[in-house]
Design a protein that fits this description.
about 180 residues, alpha+beta, Aminopeptidase, 6-stranded mixed sheet, globular
């Protein structure tokens, strides 16, 4: 009980402090124009994609830690994420970072939840790119149990279609790790 209360207090303090503590580290250049209305949600009969926030840390941490080996290389062969020693607090910081980037419109992280919102199924990241001739890069992952059930290509197709219809990008890179 004591640990739960401490965690709850930590999350409240972190949520209120995140907007001031991270802002000095990020670019002030928005990734999309100020008049573009960033989509809030993508929902299918299998999942709901919505903005990732620090409030998702418990479910996100579970999804990551039950899938560590399957997620290696999602962000390229040199990425060290996720490591088996990722702590809950480190994941909370990562989610806070993503939340702040979303607020600043410098990149966009979405959580993939089941329709009941009881389990995180994965994440989708829409990021700026340095790749020549591309407007953006989109990364995505699904937890191991959902990967094994075939959700990865379903999510990929839905996200690709959503990006084409709802986002202002003309040429998007989808660097993907296939198992």
């Amino acid at each position: 009980m004591k640990n739960s209360i401490q965690l709850f207090i930590m999350m409240i303090l972190f949520s209120s402090a995140i907007s001031s503590s991270i802002s000095f580290c990020q670019s002030s250049d928005p990734f999309v124009s100020s008049n573009f209305e960033v989509p809030d949600i993508l929902e299918t009969d299998k999942f709901r994609l919505r903005k990732l926030t620090v409030n998702d840390v418990v479910k996100d941490y579970d999804a990551v830690m039950t899938s560590v080996d399957n997620l290696k290389g999602v962000f390229g062969p040199h990425s060290k994420w996720p490591s088996k020693d990722l702590t809950f607090e480190q994941d909370l910081i990562d989610l806070g970072w993503h939340q702040k980037e979303f607020q600043r419109r410098s990149s966009f992280a979405y959580t993939v939840m089941n329709l009941e919102e009881s389990q995180c199924l994965g994440c989708v990241y829409i990021d700026p790119t340095l790749k020549k001739d591309y407007d953006a890069e989109v990364y995505l992952w699904v937890r191991k149990s959902e990967f094994d059930k075939g959700l990865d290509p379903i999510l990929f197709d839905a996200v690709k279609n959503w990006i084409e219809k709802e986002w202002p990008y003309k040429n998007v890179a989808y660097p993907r790790k296939r198992n």
